[in-house]
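Hey all, sorry for the wall of text incoming. These are the two entities for the joint prediction.
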Amino acid sequence: DTGVSQNPRHKITKRGQNVTFRCDPISEHNRLYWYRQTLGQGPEFLTYFQNEAQLEKSRLLSDRFSAERPKGSFSTLEIQRTEQGDSAMYLCASSLNPPGLNTEAFFGQGTRLTVV
Amino acid sequence: GQQVMQIPQYQHVQEGEDFTTYCNSSTTLSNIQWYKQRPGGHPVFLIQLVKSGEVKKQKRLTFQFGEAKKNSSLHITATQTTDVGTYFCAGQEESNFGNEKLTFGTGTRLTIIP
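and here's what came out:
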C-alpha cells in the first residue's frame, strides 16, 4: 500500500499522559500536514512541513503539542499532559508541491485519540 | 488569519433533487480544492480549481470558482444515495511564496432521503 499511513489507529490514554502519533506520507511527497477533526467539524489545521522544515504551527495550538519531520520523511505528533479536550481524530495528509503549484492532499485513515 | 466558511451546514434532500454548497474565504485564494468525506472515513480529493471564474464538471457534479477567487460552489444534479457525506472546500491563500497551508472549510453534510 503506497498511501498515507498513520499509527496507531486508535489510542486511549489517561489524562495527563503523553502520546505520540506517527504518519508515513506518500514517499515522494514533500509536504505533510497535521489536522485535528472533531465530530461534525471540518479538519482544523495544526501544523505543516515542507520537507523537514516546519512552516507554520496553528496559533490555537498550545505548547503541549509538538511535531517533527526528521529527514523530511515520516512525521510524529506528540501531545504532552493530555487533556480531555484533546480527544479527537488526528489526520495526517501529504501532497506534492513543486514551487508555485498546489496539488491535492492525500489523507491517512487518522488516529482517534480518546482521553479518559 | 484566513477563514473558510461553508453554507449550509446541513442539507437533507430527496433522492433525485439537486444540492448546492457554497464556500467563502476571508482572503483571496490561489486555488480551491473540494473534498468528500463519507461517514467514518477520511477526506478524499474531488477536484482543484485554479483560474478566476473557472467551471469544471465531473458527471453530475459542477464546481465553480468565483471571479474574485474568494468563493466557490459545488452543485450536484439529481442526487443519489452514493452522494451521502460531508463536502469540504479547502483553499490556499494567494501569496508570493506559493507555499501557503491548505485551510479547510466548515463543511456541508448531505443526507439523502430515499
